[in-house]
Amino acid sequence: MDAAILSPVPAVAVDPMVPRPFRIVRRVKEVDGCFTLHLRSLDGRPYAFKPGQFNMLYVFGVGEVAISVSGDCRDLNRLVHTIREVGTVTRAMAQLKVGDTIGVRGPFGNPWPIEPAYGHDVLFVTGTVGLAPLRPLVMEVLNRREHFGKVVVCYGSRGTHDILYETLLHQWRGRFDMQVHVTVHSAPAGYRGRVGSVAGLVKIARFDPEQTVAYVCRSETMTRPAVQALYERGVTADRIYVTLERNMKCGVGFCGHCQMGGSFMCKDGPVYRYDTIEHVFSVREL
Amino acid sequence: MERTGTVKDRLAGNGKAVVGIEGLDALIAALRDDGYAVIGPRVRDGAVVYDPLDSPADLPWGWIDEQDGGRYRLVREGEAAFGHVVGPQSWKTYLYPPRQTLWTGRRDGPGFTVSAPDGAVPRYAFLGVRGCELAAMAVQDRVFGVTPHGGRAVGEQQFTDSGYAARRNAAFLIAVNCGRAGGTCFCASMGTGPKAAGGYDLALTELVGDGRHEFLVEVGSEKGAAVLERLPRRAAETRDVDAAERAVERARTHMGRTMVEDPASLLARNLEHPRWDEVAARCLSCANCTMVCPTCFCTTVEDKTDLTGDHVERWRRWDSCFTVDFSYIHGGAIRQSARSRYRQWMTHKLSSWWEQFGTSGCTGCGRCITWCPVGIDITEEAQAIKNSEGRG
Ligand SMILES: Cc1cc2nc3c(=O)[nH]c(=O)nc-3n(C[C@H](O)[C@H](O)[C@H](O)COP(=O)(O)OP(=O)(O)OC[C@H]3O[C@@H](n4cnc5c(N)ncnc54)[C@H](O)[C@@H]3O)c2cc1C
Ligand code: SF4
Ligand code: SF4
Ligand code: FES
Q1: Interface of A with B (CB under 8 A)
Q2: Could you check whether the bond before residue A21 is cis, i.e. omega within 30 degrees of 0?
Q3: Which of A2, A103, A109, B116 has the most Cβ atoms closer than 10 angstroms to its Cβ?
Q4: Rounded mean pLDDT of B38-53?
């Protein structure tokens, strides 16, 4: 196994509330309203993270938001984030160019656990931009391919124009050692791909439900139907991992904003084993 | 005389001593000599607040506070310095100030540089810390990673708030055991008072009446013993210790309020109780309760930019889960209704805090009851849920 994975993540800067400046070295336009930034630290120190962790990204004078790391966890010199423009901070981020500086605090949060899936089939269930936080995990599972049975990706988007990382999905699809299923919610006449829901993909994908670990990365409302489809196939809650989203101001357990019942999403999440938070989905406005 | 052993050993009477009013004078002077800013109770704008003290003359001698749901009034009674209980402020004002600069930034070509504050903190000596307030500090110590949190959460608190930790570790704490309970106090049922259980450097019990006015002093730390050694004092006798115990007992038996037993599981199994709707109809979402609560720690951040836009100060300020924005994520707030926000507050204080930090988030100080403009009472709400449990 790679040293980068086994070595402990280096301590975050002495004060976890103070950002480290990173330079934007590459900017990639993704699907509409979505872009990817490649960053390099200005202090020259490497940056290590585990798949599923996130950073607080700061735009000078504008503000700071939580963004998952989307790159390769074995590349300690390139930090990659894929961001969707939705409001004040992410819009300001979209204006940044190569050469500009961005502040980074992190990595924070509880990563996707990989070892529990050793010896199992692995199923990734995601859609639209949900693939961004999941990409480091898929890459790492492929790095450690020999530990797993089948590797299956179920991906859904709204239309044919918002399939994130489409080239990468094509590459993965070309591999003989993984299945990639893509579906779109609606498509123009003549579209040759699959039309329908991600839950529908879960129904048809080939994996051994008794021996499968599933990683679900969808919005909170879309998580439930995905989990339901997994249940129907016989995957139990203790083998399903999901992510959740809450307002975050600090990322380190001080500001209280990310609380959900007894849990702080920034340190106990954002990745949860489904059986530990199932009750949350039944209490409104928790 | 040979000076061996710890300072505590050298003090006669098991470290307990009695000082007079002049002893308080000497105490404040000694702490000031040692470079502490002495903060303690004093009357300002009709309330007892924690302010810098120059001498014992600044203390609220002969004032007590009448407190009830939504009601606070100072009245003249007796001559005690610590006859009042807790006021609208708590020590978190000093240990975790309402506004703090996290760092400053400056634009620098295409980029920017960031500098953290130098880390220097004031050295405070707090005079008059009550049992419930020591308990509140112990709670915040867990929140800010100064002591292990003991909750069931996945990891230990991985980070420490360096500013809080520095201020906390530098502080000298003089506890006061309560000889009188306030109308909204319920520390006895929360197990945090009226006697300070530990975590102080020195603890005072005011012995007043029957022609005397003295303070029994107990030692809680080496630091405390070293200061006590410099004060004019006499060894405590049994009658002094007994008088102190009687005073505390009087407070214990006169608690204005009582919390039901095991509110943690009571609330955890009643997240959908109709009482939440009922209390939401009265709650103004004003956030007073979270501001006055000595354990509430929530904050938000904001950027202050100068006119050129080249300098930024990043501020952290107290926030409250009673605001709608608090839980905002793109698309709308998670907790839209007053019901869900009140439930967040009360279940956090009494229930989910246990999961997070292995302790109650409420210490029974009563502030949220007193300072609620409509007198919502956390003990009464818990009782109401208990009474109607299962009768929906
Ligand atoms: C753990 C985690 C990982 C995330 N990973 C990604 C990612 O990889 N890519 C991506 O595009 N987005 C991600 N998000 C969502 C992203 O944080 C929000 O889209 C962003 O905060 C919106 O900020 P804004 O100022 O542009 O929007 P506005 O609507 O103007 O929001 C105002 C403020 O509300 C808060 N806020 C709003 N939406 C969210 C939200 N969804 N989550 C938390 N706080 C919010 C922020 O403090 C924000 O500054 C993630 C969120 C979390 C919690
Ligand atoms: S919840 Fe109320 S009584 Fe409990 S510690 Fe906070 S302010 Fe005091
Ligand atoms: S009660 Fe509200 S403001 Fe107080 S600590 Fe809990 S979430 Fe924060
Ligand atoms: S984001 Fe501040 S406590 Fe979790």
Answers
A1: 12, 14-19, 21, 23, 42, 60-64, 86-87, 99-101, 103, 110, 245-247, 249-250, 252-257, 259, 261-264, 267-268, 283-286
A2: no
A3: A109
A4: 97
Task: Judge whether B200 and B220 are in contact, CB under 8 Å.
Answer: yes
**Residues B219, B304 within the same domain:** no
Please name which ligand lies nearest the alpha carbon of A255: 4
User: Residue length, chain A?
Assistant: 286
How many helices, marked H, and strands, marked E, lie in chain A?
A: 7, 15
Strand-pair category, B47-52 with A54-59: unpaired
Rounding to the nearest 10 degrees, give the CA dihedral for residues A95, A101, A105, A110.
60
The answer to whether residue A256 is domain-embedded is no
Would the CB of A254 count as within 6 Å of ligand 4?
yes
Range of the domain at B59: 5-98+116-253
Chain centre distance of CA B242: 27
**Is residue B103 in a domain?**
no
CB B290 within 8 A of CB B321: yes
Of B253, B271, B294, the one marking the end of a domain is B253
Average pLDDT, chain B: 92
Round to whole Å and give the CA distance between A213 and A239.
5
* A40 found inside a domain: yes
Domain count, chain B: 2
Instruction: Tell whether B234 and B352 lie within a shared domain.
Output: no
Pick the closest to residue B25 from B233, B241, B236, B239 (CA basis). B233
Q: How far apart are CA A186 and CA A192, in angstroms?
A: 12
CB contact at 8 A, A267 and B154: yes
Among residues A67, A89, A108, the one where a domain terminates is A108
- Where in the sequence is the domain holding A75, given as residue range(s)? 2-108
Q: What is the pLDDT of residue B390?
A: 64
Q: Are A111 and A69 in contact (CB under 8 A)?
A: no
Distance from CA of A4 to the nearest CA of B (A): 21
**C-alpha A252 to ligand 4 mean position (Å):** 5
Q: Which of residues 125-184 of B touch A (CB under 8 A)?
A: 143-145, 151-155, 157-159, 161-162
Give the containing element (helix H, strand E) for A145. Answer: none
Tell me the per-residue pLDDT of B67-98, one tens digit each, with 9 for 90 and over.
999 999 999 999 999 999 999 999 999 999 99
- The helix/strand/coil state of A129 is helix
The Cβ-side half-sphere exposure at B270, using a 13 Å CA radius, reads 28
Share of chain A above pLDDT 90, in %: 83
**pLDDT band per the 50, 70, 90 thresholds, residue B211:** confident
Prediction pTM value: 0.92
